[in-house]
Amino acid sequence: MSLILGSCAKEEIRNVDFSNYNDDDPQTNTELDKWLRSTFLDEYNMDVVYRYNRYYHDIERNVTPPKLEAVRPTMESVLNGYLLPYRKVAGPDFIKKMNPKEWILFGSNSYASDGSVYAGTASAGRRVNLYGINNYSPYGALQVIHHEFVHILNQLVNIPTDFESISKADYKATWSSTPIDTARKYGFVNPYASGSYTEDFAETSAVLLVKGQAYFDNYASTSSTSGKSKLKQKEANIANYFTSSLKVDFRELQKEIQDYLKSTVYPNDLKFQQYLTTLFKTVTVNFNNPIYTKYGETPQMKAAYDGIKADIARYGPTDFMQIRFDSSTAATIRFAFTSGTTQYFADYSFDYTYSRTTGELKFTKVAQRGTTETYSNANLFMGAFTTFIQPYFDNKTFTADWLKADVSGADYNSLAGFYEKDNVANYWYGVLGQAL
Amino acid sequence: MNLKSIIYGLILLVSISSCQQKDLDLVFSETPDVRMKTKLDSISSALIGAPNGWKATVGTGLKGGYGFYFTFDDQQVVKMVGDLTDESMTKLQESNFRVKQDNGATLIFDTYNYITMLNHPDPAVYGGTIREGLRSDLEYRFKSSSTDTMVFVGKRYANELVLVKATAEEKNKYISSSYLTAVNSTKTFFTNNENPYIEFTEGGKTYQMGIALALNNKTIEFASLEADNSTSAASGKFAFSLDGAEIINGGVPYRGITFLYVKKEADKYYMVDSKGSKYELKNSSTPILPLYKLIGSKYVGFRSPYLTYFPGTSADGLTILKRFHEGLASGATGYLFNSGYIDIAFDTRNKRVVFSGASSQSNGQSHWITTITYNYVLDDNTGIFTLTLREGATGGYTSAIMDQLHSFLLTSRVRFDYHSDSGNVYGKMIGVDTPNVEITFRMR
Asked: Are A20 and B37 a contacting pair at CB < 8 A?
């Protein structure tokens, strides 16, 4: 009390209302502002700042504000390609809690002094900066967004310690001078990922989530042996981080994000046509597989299959039919059957042509490429084969694509459908394999 | 005594003690928050309140000035045209602005518009350099205002943004594409009249002042002969206006006159000075000042940048340049370089020419320089230079690939002339005894 009494003896500083003068609250209420408020601020407590403020970017760089018309498309892809997939797979509580609260949009990229370009940054688990939205591409933007959100997740739940050890010896801070082929050879998804294990984790996750599993597998298959093994170790580690540590089903998440992209821009990296015969070397049809209950039987294919199956039954049950792309021109249709306790193969030789752009695949029966073993087995059922299977494939053109059905996360990217040209009612599908 | 009564007791005491306090004397009439708010409000209301909007100029660090027309409204929306491109002069474009306290009252163009292009870090958008564009700002600190003018200063590059209230007639012109028509007319005048000049008197004597308008770089240059037959020069930056061009930053003072505008009146163009005097722009068939007269005053020399061959270079000239530029990376010097340049510099006092060959292994970040020095004799009537060797190649690593230009300079007398191409003016060196050698340089 003596203190209070003492205070009356000296002059007091007057109250200052800082809201008068430090007032930086851009107050427009356009349709855009309303949409941003109801979609992001009300629902996710997420503030989207698109009006320029120098203090949100590196102060020594020129970074421009966005064009007004670029804001909504960018934020729509944030919503549909990032927030909603997480919301669906991980649940509303997860995404509302983890989602960074400040999103700052810039029109231009942010250029570092070495000429490298920042497309996005994340800081303190709270803020994401997205640069370059004037040259907006949902595909590119989503890679940045997912990359940044993985950083945010890492700031809340640490990267598993065993991830760092996978490529520990190969990280170099001067990533911008690392050529792409070197990065690939050492098991990095791109040069940026080779800078540090934190960037590697975010970048590898973003590639898996946005560019897709097929892209990733194809990339890994063109790496060195050790590079491929490291890439696959990283994938397993990341999938485990999501599924076990965060309780977010990584495969479902991949599917949700990529379904959005496929329904909008459909980037080439996600297209099946890119990968058949190079990455995916076999397609296996086995009507005992539960997928045919889930996604439907294919009557014409089934009839042909059952036709030869009845003949093979003389020796034992048919295990599967497998289309094998042996080289860039030669294919084999193989039937596997079990007689006694041993599995045998019967191989029938075809040539094929395939277009990576249209996905059109055409088989032509050619003379058998051998006479012994699998080829001599083939002779056992040649009559049934010629009657049932050969007419189904020979000289017909099929368009290859992912199976056109709402497949579950577990089957995502592992089923391919082949649709007869000009007769889409006739199609067949099977499980993809990457090794002959 | 319960807690509540203690608190009430305290409040009572505080009230009593504050009753006894004297009012604080403020150095200024109001507290900072009130004064700042007043200032922000007055700037906002002035911007919004101009009934016909504002015509404006802003400078850039890398090039000249740019002209704009703005209207501001109370929804923080600014509409503008600007003399950057044909589109930007004809299409009124909308974006946002706000006025904020940030180390002083600050006007911020806070979503993308034409003015943003001057700041853009990607040179593909509107030229300039990577990371800095043309060196122009988005944020402007309030500096001063008068009845019809507001002046702001860019926060990073410190170029002035000057806003002047537009008239109803000017507004109509700006929003109806007349800006483009006016700019094209000005450009045409300066393209058709290759050697524009004005006449002015000084000390009872009439002088001709040559004017060079760099339409792309938006700089204006003056040069004239002084009483003692030497030359002098001055330069400034301009922005296009509805009736010509405005020289920014208060005009260019030159020989006692401050030139402010290039102004079109009834199909004639005039220079207008700060006193309102007009000087008609005339055209001369030959340059008012031959290039050689300006060496040492306006230009210090000539440069050939790495692997850059300017228009006007003859085939034999190109051979000489390529010997140097292509020799840098080919190993002809015994070393491998990835950048370099040629400089021809004049030392008029000592009558020397220095020929430098620069080489770099850091893409031009740093250079080693080889120099050859010549004495020269200039024939003042013909502008022909005769060079004799003073000191052979010294320093650096490029003497081997400087050989062809060196031998040309010693075997042929040379003269210099302007070369214009696509709105750019270059300097050309022409062999007198070997007339098939013509080499175009950037003037420095």
From this structure: yes
